[in-house]
Design brief:
By secondary structure, the protein is of the alpha+beta class. The protein folds into four domains: about 50 residues, no CATH class; about 80 residues, conserved putative lor/sdh protein from methanococcus maripaludis s2 fold; about 90 residues, Efflux pump adaptor protein, beta barrel domain (Elongation Factor Tu (Ef-tu), domain 3, Beta Barrel), CATH 2.40.30; about 60 residues. Helices cover about 25% and strands about 35% of the residues. Helix 1 crosses helix 2 and helix 5 runs antiparallel to helix 6.
Length: about 375
């Protein structure tokens, strides 16, 4: 039994020796031609290689199949989005210019008043008597002036006397005008048509110069006020059409009527005003609003969001197929995101965008694109 194990071990060692150290001799003994074996291997390899001749000349592998879409740039209306609030076209606190007690029945807030309509009336007191006295003083001064001129013509009065009489007439007329103005100021009227934001002064209230009779606001038209950042203010022009949406969902349109030339020192933004019709006063003063001011359009491509990818530097872009059927990466900028896709700029006017397989190819790789139809 032990002799058999020793013989088996010797046979195994001898076989390993010939297989490792005398391999060529064993092949010659078996009748195998190494050159023929090498030729046969090349033939098999040639049969398996399906690389196109142009690719084999450049040492490349077979073209990778991808799906692409032919895209043509279209002009996209751009807009500057601003957030702000509504503001009354005009708002004023109508104040008294003279003193007196209110003798008129007050108007309640919310009432509509026309331009020139009486808001408050004050008691005249002794102002009528003062006016009559001023008128009489004017007549007296005019008679004295006429007498002074006659005496001066006859040589009985000096020229200085005539000048003094003329000054007395002007002083009397000024006193009369002041008395008349005092009476006119007893009636306080609305400077423009609008709504009363407060009750007018109560009956019997004592008014002094500067006391507020009422607050009047004008809501038709109404202003939409927003603030544009420095980077976008140059895209806005006075007269440009603008749309807006209130927080309630109501949508309105108007035109830009004012664009500030001076920035707010705290926020470095510029005031933008849009005028909107408001005949039914549905829009109130101070409501939150989001505005979109139309600006010059630009050419953009509508691509699927899935086609967007990043390069090795982290730049956002898409992979396209160039004229030589090779992959190229083009950085893009997103202009607008919609349900149909993403509008981007930075691509040529006509381009073949890879839509399937873009994550498995790199720039310069040879591809075999299959084009899909564009659904409008």
């Amino acid at each position: 039994m032990r002799i058999a194990s020793i013989i088996t071990a010797l046979l195994v060692v001898t076989g390993i020796y010939f297989f490792v150290f005398e391999r060529d001799a064993v092949k010659d003994f078996a009748g195998t031609d190494p050159a023929a074996e090498q030729a046969g291997g090349e033939t098999a390899e040639t049969q398996v290689d399906a690389t196109p001749p142009a690719a084999r000349e450049k040492g490349e592998t077979a073209a990778i199949k991808v799906v692409a879409r032919h895209s043509v740039a279209r002009e996209l209306d751009s807009a500057v989005v601003l957030r702000g609030e509504t503001e009354a076209a005009r708002s004023i606190q109508v104040a008294a210019e003279t003193s007196g007690r209110v003798i008129s029945t007050p108007l309640r807030k919310g009432a509509y008043v026309d331009e020139g309509q009486m808001l408050c009336e004050l008691d005249a007191g002794t102002r009528s008597a003062s006016l009559a006295q001023a008128r009489a003083a004017v007549k007296e001064a005019e008679v004295a002036l006429a007498n002074a001129r006659k005496l001066s013509e006859g040589g009985y009065a000096s020229e200085t006397a005539v000048l003094s009489a003329e000054a007395a007439v002007e002083a009397a007329r000024a006193a009369q005008a002041q008395a008349e103005n005092e009476i006119e100021n007893l009636t306080i009227t609305a400077p423009f048509a609008g709504l009363l934001e407060s009750d007018t002064a109560e009956l019997g209230q004592l008014m002094q110069p500067g006391s507020v009779c009422a607050t009047v606001i004008q809501l038709d038209p109404i202003k939409l006020v927003g603030f544009a950042p420095e980077a976008e203010v140059d895209r806005i022009e006075v007269g440009t059409l603008a749309g807006a949406q209130l927080i309630s969902g109501q949508e309105v349109t108007g035109r830009v009527t004012f664009l500030s030339r001076s920035a707010d020192p705290a926020t470095r933004t510029f005031r933008v005003e849009v005028e909107v019709p408001n005949p039914d006063f549905a829009i109130r003063d101070g409501q939150t609003v989001e505005m979109a001011v139309r600006s010059e359009g630009k050419l953009a491509h509508l691509v699927a969001q899935s086609t967007l990818t990043l390069d090795d530097e982290g730049a956002l872009g898409v992979r396209i197929v160039d004229a030589d059927n090779r992959v190229a990466f083009v950085p893009v900028s997103v202009v607008r995101d919609t349900r149909e896709g993403v509008w981007v700029t930075g691509l040529p006017e006509e381009v073949d965008v890879i839509t399937v397989g873009q994550e498995y190819v790199r720039s310069g790789v040879l591809v075999e694109p299959h084009f899909e139809e564009i659904s409008q």
